[in-house]
Structures are given as C-alpha cells and as structure tokens.
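Case study B.
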Amino acid sequence: MPIAAAQGPNGSAAPVPVVVAPQPDGSAVMCDLAADGTRLASAVRLNDFSSAIADRERSDRVRWVWAAADGCYPDLLRAGLRLARCHDVALVEALLLGRDGRHGEPATLAGAWARLRGERAPRRAATPSGSAQQALFEPTEPGLPEGAAVLDALIAVYADQLAKIGADEAQARLRLLAAAESAGALAAAEMCFDGLPWRADVHDELLAGLLGPRPPRGSRPRRLAELAEQITAAFGGRPVNPDSPAQLVRAFAAEGVSVPSTRSQVLRDVHHPAAPLLLQYKELARLHSAHGWAWLDSWVADGRFHPEYVVGAVVSGRWASNGGGALQIPRVLRRAVVADPGWTLVVGDAAQLEPRVLAALAADRAFAEAAAAGDLYAELAGAFGGDRSKAKVALLSAMYGGAGGEAGQLLAVLRRRFPDAAGYVEAAARAGEEGRVVRSVLGRACPQPSAAWRSLTASASSAGAGASVRARGRFTRNFVVQASAADWALVLLACLRPRLTSLAGPDGAGRPHLVFFQHDEVIVHCPDALAQPVVAAIEAAAQEAGRLVFGATPVRFPVTTAVVSCYGDAK
DNA sequence: TTCCGTTGCGCG
DNA sequence: AAAGCGCGCAACGGAA
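Model:
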C-alpha cells in the first residue's frame, strides 16, 4: 500500500533521504541515502552547515535525516531557512522504544547507536538546562564517533528504525506517525522562532485594571494587598497569609469552621465572610504570580511571546511546553494576543475532537453517523431524552472513567445505544487493569505499569490494590482516546505546514506563520489578504488528517475557524 | 542555603 | 464516601 506521508502531492516522487550532521566548526557532513536507508553515495563535507542545507533544499525534495530537529533546526531558522520535512531520529527512537515497552531508555542518537551494537546506552550527558542544542554541537557527544564517522551511526540507526517500522503489523500507520512526529518537531521550532504576537501594553493595562498599578518587585499589587487586609479582618484581625493553605485551614478552624482544604471548589460552599474574599484573592493572585509582570518581563520581547514547545514529552503524544506556560495561557490574557497591523489571526479549533476520535476508533455505526454532523452532542441528545448536556456528560464519563452523580445511568444508556463505542473504551480500561499496554490509532504505546504498581496489585488483598487497578484502567481508557486525538492533531499540523508554505510569496514574503498549537487548536498569523486561503488550508488539512489517520469513516472532523485581529475575540 | 514533595489552579 | 484523563508553574514549608 502506498504511504501517503512518503508520497508528495500530485504523486511526485518520494523525497530523497539525506543524512546530515553539523560539525563543531560550523561545517556539515552529509550523505544521500536510498529509500531503504542504505548509503547511496559517499559522504561529503561542506563548509557551512546552513548554506549546504539551503542549497540542497532548494534543488531537491529532501527528507533530512538528523539526530534531532531541536538541536539542528533553530540555527537554520536563524539563518533564514525553512525545511519541508525531516526524520527526527530521537523522536522516532522514543516512539519505537515505547512500542517495545521501553519508555524511559535514552532515546538519543547515542543511545540508539549503543543499543544497536549491543552496548550499554550512555547516560544522558548532564547539560545545562535547555541546551540540547549545545550538547549536539559539543565536539564529542558521549557515545558518538567524531567527525564524519557520526554519519555511520546516523545511517545505521536510521536504517534500523526503517526496518523496525516496516516490520510492524501496522507499518503504514507507524510510518505516518514517525513522519508526523518529525514534522511536529519542525513546526515546534518554527513556532518558537516566530513567536506568538503579544502586546505587552495590552497585557500591562489588563493587569493594572485587575490588580492595580505595577508594584515594586516582590511586593503585592494594591488590589491583592487590600484583599489580604480584608481577609485578616474577616478572621478577627489574626494575621494570615492567604497564600498559605495550611495557615488558612488553621484560621478557619479557629473560627469553628472545619475545611478539608482551601480549594476554590471547597471555599465556594463555606459560609464565612473570609471565603468570598479568598476566592477573589486566589483568582487574582494566580494571575499575578503565573502571568503577571514578571512573566511579561521574562517571556515577551519585541512584541512576541517565544515559548518552547517540547514534542514527544507527554506519553499521549500531546506536546508539553517548557517555560512560559504556553499551553496554559489564561483566557483573560488572550486579549493581549493581537495581530500585527495589516495582518490577522486565523484561529482554528477542532470541534469535539475526542468524542469524534472515539467514534472513528470504535467504528460504532450509530455513533459514527452522529459524528458526521456538526454538533455531535446535539446529535446524540435524542438518545438521552433530548438533553444535549446529558449526552456530553455521558461521553466525557466514558472517556475519563468517571462514574459519579448521574454519570452511571447515562453510561448505561450509552452502553445500550452505542455498544461499540462504550465497548472500545471499556476494553481499553480492562487492558489497563490487567497490566497490559494500549496503543493509539497510529501506534503510540502507553507506558507499562511501574514495578511498584505490579507488586501492589499482585495480591488483591493489599491495601490500595483495587484503587490502583482502577486508576490504571482510567489511564488506559483515556489514553486510547487522548493519544489518538493527539495523533490526528499532529497529522493535521503536518498537513497544514506545506499548505501554508504554498501560500507565501515567491521569496517567502508574507508567509503565514503557525504561531500557536494547543492540543486541538491552532493559530495562524497571516497577512489580511490570506485569511480566507488560510481558513481553507486549515479545513483541508483537517479533512486530510481524518482520512490519513482513520481511513474511510463517516466521522467528520470539523474545525471552527475565526478570523480575528485579537485572540480574545475568537469563540 | 538548596532541594523536593505538596497544594492549588491554569489549559486541553 | 469519594471519585473520572493529561499537562506546567508558583508558592509554601519541611528536610537536607
């Protein structure tokens, strides 16, 4: 079966794999490979890493095979390059290790090279934080040969990875996953480089409006100080630090109010004059500490927020972020995300992604037909007495393993009306409870249970065994859905990148930038005139992703798009 | 002083 | 009776 990811648009020839390694002196060694990863020519050495890559990228359809995009690509971006595709040895190695139940072993090129030769993988070299890049350009990465000989390791490991993928029972999907994960690494580096448009002045005004003017470093903003005083007064003048849960619990106890914790959820039901004040305080204090002026100082420069996305850091295949909390931007701050003059933001959000993914995964006919519509929950409402919200609760409970409140009854309805969908997640839960692993649709494996879990659950009588078994079941139940949704989103990203590139001017001028990706949501920053083509590109990429990941299915994956100048205006 | 586990809350 | 999934970050407070 031809693999779509290995085949260009219009049936053009598959890209040529070219293995490349930057050298400490700024030069590069590279070598053309055959489709099966074997050496096609002898290695060449080129004086300048980025110009060597640029020349080749211009003249050929290349898949760059390298140790890791997060090491190589930022330099190339700074040099003004954009690459179409790569094979990220480290990310693919992590996928393959996970598939073999070996999560946690070093997934670096050096680790893979050592395993290939039956040696112990070198422990990851201790590097200063965030300097994967530095490590790569160290003259001698531990465990790797120096100079052009590093290509031997790269070529051998790449060929081995291709062989492992080819030997998998679901090789086409695994190959797609490897390509999408690698494309994700390119997208992540580009997003970090380009940055999310961020108006520091708008952010500052917003903070000042809620907290009072910017205070000296280290002291409480006016509004928080006022609330803290009022809280102290509400506790009869006994000084209490509202940031300290322990002090608050004691202060409530002294007033004869027993609280298990100081969570907002708990405080909402506490009848004491301090409770509503604390709720206000907590909300504002959180904004101040997590996304206040200090955040603005560290993360926003030149009108851009430059987060670092970490591909492959989450077991489900979702991205993580490192510094700046890129994936936890509070809704109120979306006001500060404003397009440049003459540019616009296209915000695309995959509607009800996870239940749709479940529908496609389970191939539940009745469910899948409902998922052919725009509002899945509304479509399912009929099965739940016409109540859309009940349909939603039932679905979320099925996917998360919740069974509280009325969820139990709603699950029973779900099981009766959509037996295959319910059966799919329940089979995943059972697998987890039995200590087995599950996989996403494209073959990303969940981690095996820990040794501690195994020994705890080995005897049903030991305390906590039942709870641990059920927790593992909820994890695997959710994993199959969340990880498959992540597969879909990653493929969407991989399909969207080339479409956006093709909208750029001849010299790359006015190129639409992907500037944000959050699980099921993308933001593209583009010139005003390109807004509609970008909308079309996102929708087309979503449909392409659905087809590539799930094949023939009636399930649709609609993306809600909004063309706005301010992120706060989307939705 | 630094380190680390816990608490709590933001996002999906 | 309490409880669903996955993350990152900041502050606290005890331990080293």
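Residues 245-246, 261-264, 282-283, 286-287, 290-291, 318, 325, 327-331, 353-354, 482, 518-521 of chain A lie near DNA strand B (CB under 10 Å from a C1'). The remaining cases will be described in the next quarterly update.
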